[in-house]
Amino acid sequence: MKSPKGRELITRVITAPGDDAGLFLTNLRVRGWMDHETLAKHRADLVMVALLGDRHGRAAVDYSVNPALGFPDATGPEGSTQPVSHVLPAWDCIAGNMAVTALLAAERHRLRTGQGQEVLFSLKDAAAAMLGNLGIIGEVCVNGTDRPKYGNALYGGYGQDFICADGARVMVIGLTDRQWRGLLKATGTQDAMAQLEARLGESLSDEGARFRHRAAITDLLSPFFARHSVDAFAKEFDSKGVTWSQFRSFAQAVHEDPDLSPENPMFHMIEQPGIGTYPTPASPLDFSRIARQAPVAAPKLGADTEEVLADVAGLTAGEIASLFDDGTVTGPRGDKFFVNAAE
Amino acid sequence: MKSPKGRELITRVITAPGDDAGLFLTNLRVRGWMDHETLAKHRADLVMVALLGDRHGRAAVDYSVNPALGFPDATGPEGSTQPVSHVLPAWDCIAGNMAVTALLAAERHRLRTGQGQEVLFSLKDAAAAMLGNLGIIGEVCVNGTDRPKYGNALYGGYGQDFICADGARVMVIGLTDRQWRGLLKATGTQDAMAQLEARLGESLSDEGARFRHRAAITDLLSPFFARHSVDAFAKEFDSKGVTWSQFRSFAQAVHEDPDLSPENPMFHMIEQPGIGTYPTPASPLDFSRIARQAPVAAPKLGADTEEVLADVAGLTAGEIASLFDDGTVTGPRGDKFFVNAAE
């Protein structure tokens, strides 16, 4: 990428002709030879989507964006003062999906008008927008409150974790009215809850009331779970439409949950050469008119070099050979796999 | 929605003619009169995207999906055995973005072929696919390990939180080679780190080595932060390209970070009637050919009823009046706002 010949090649691949080409998604810094203006000299209708770190062009990663927005401060056991960063790189996952939206929207515009364009956004802006979308900015500005840690309680409705007789931990949800009534019925706590409502002088049919009185509700539900092992109520909870789940570790989830195995048509057993064979997901989206593509093993870094140079850049066999000879490009490299990273 | 007249109206709105119509995104159960087959009798090329709870059609919410997959078990202070659910409804945010991708992809197919279709997916499958995409399923199956809690450490590279002289907490990142070298330079720990490498007999230029030896690295970096307040190094860290951030609460973030204020062109001060005025985000995506739409106040539930009935369903003023009269539809209702929920 540092040699003029390498840059020329990359430009040729990015700006290749065709309706399904000229679509460039990157998280590199888009300056100089790789900016939209320069690339568009080679294909005027180029669509380019660039994901930056923050709007100032500084680098940022999921683990630096997240603490800046306040989530670790609101995560963890009630009463604790230690911030807890979540393990899921959620902002990467969200921004990655937004990049696809940007690409599809810009391609839609190109198809209708013939115009290409550049779409810029940043990991931090994606997160900041979500902070607003979730109502958290409004909550701070209007209520003047700073949300404390609520442990594993669902915020704004009823949802709580319980330890069962067999030591397993479950999460039960009473967010919607249907879920709330189903939970009381399945645990036989309707009468006890009606007595609580009488004591409080307040109906728990309002989700906000359920959140405020969650400790009292939890006290009434706890004995049911302390008396039963998960097996004793799992089927009944499912048949009665209770929204619930069991806390599992990653390994327990992979080994015990059929939804994470090839029993789920989304998963296929795929051999990743040099690593092993394990359930690998296809897209979660199931289109009725387009067969879901099965996942394939990740290619080695450089595995597609020749094919791309021939089919996309349109080079001859002789030209390709000389690029290999002078070291401008390389073929598959030992143990390096191509891995997509959102940062 | 329970009256035949109501259902007929909804069908008419969903299946209205035009290139920009006939696009239906829902998280309702799509059975009976609202399934794709029935609706497609009114518009054959209908595109419909339905987000379910799980693939079996059971209800699920972010807070029930997340424990089932193992994230709370791997989140929280090192050595703790308490699962910690994260506060961000990450799976809702991810699935919501996937729904947009599905809609745009299906509309793209329709534009090229004239065919409509149904796209089904579930919140749990979206999360399960991400578990695979992140390599966690492979990690369990190949290494046979169950990832323990690593506190606020960045997994697989170097990233750690530090308490500064002024009591503030910062996160610093040494994930890429450039970030790692920048961090050592800015903290003046190059020599100390070279001595650590000599003692270990191992180079820390490999990110995996940095993760394994993170405790020793943290020991060498801690004195710098213990000696300095954030103000003392913030500008230098930024100018030297260190990837870092400060832990803030939601309120601190909103009050202190200009990226969450109208200084950021993504945010506008919007008055939400009956609630207040606060920074509200536009889309984080900035298209060069399409001006970014400013955010607007959320409409009251029912505020657009008349307009939709006239412009989309094509009803006359008389027909609309009679629908209001017989209670099939209602206008704006007191304090109920229309809120999009991914579950």
Automatic annotation (TrEMBL), chains A, B:
Keyword Zinc-finger set for record: no
UniProt xrefs under InterPro entries: CoA-transferase_III, CoA-Trfase_fam_III, CoA-Trfase_III_dom3_sf, CoA-Trfase_III_dom_1_sf
Keywords: Isomerase
One Pfam family named in its UniProt record: CoA_transf_3
GO molecular function: isomerase activity
Keyword Isomerase part of the UniProt annotation: yes
Top-rank taxon: Bacteria
Name this protein carries in UniProt: 2-methylfumaryl-CoA isomerase
